[in-house]
Amino acid sequence: MRNLVKTLFLVSLCVPSYVMSQSPKYKLVWKENFRGKEINDKYWTKIPRGESDWNRHMSSHPDLYEVKNSNLILHGVENKGVAPEDTARYITGGVYTKDKMTITYGKVEVKAKLQGAKGAWPAIWMLPNEGKWPDGGEIDIMERLNHDTIAYQTVHSYYTYVLKETENPKHGSTGKINPDGYNVYAVEILPDSLVFSINGNRTFSYPKIETDKKGQYPFGTPYYLLIDMQIEGSWVGKADPKEYPVKMEVDWVKMYELKK
Q: Is the pTM of this model over 0.85?
């Protein structure tokens, strides 16, 4: 019996705290059902264009945004006269909650339907409300490429991006999705781990570990949510204009705070 107790004690020392801890409890603090006729600018802002792969086709053109049948619909189109003043070949819609709605520790869920197309790269993800990239971290709740039947869920930071520490611990995984219907994508942001799931099924967790290397777990500051219909990029590849327009439909968004 004494040897059994000793063995169990030694095993417990090797089990990460996020495994041994009790299931976290959450309080719903925000739910967006898109029941109006327009985007609620109290919480959402259209994402401005930038120079990165993900935002170089972003546009505020009204034809790229709809609130219809209790869904937010973000369009991606070949720019054939849609916005003649815009020189971009493709233009896309995207929104974020930067400076308006953030979460530190808690859970984020988004129910969305993604239309596939070659070069389509819809994403649901999070960034720190303050701090530069990649030091502040990035949480990719969902990225889908082309016509894939899986979604990618990934963690980025100085540790993973600059130091290339992507396997200790593993910084990403994939999960099966219904490619033609709605799926619920989620992440739990905890003091000791990030826990990802799709349709309630856990895909993987990213733990905080003991390391002397910089920036392994920068999470624990206010993060905002981004939802965008991205097109083309070095990862997804070129778009096929014959498969456009394309859209992503968002049924609802929920944010929960972690109960202390």
A: yes
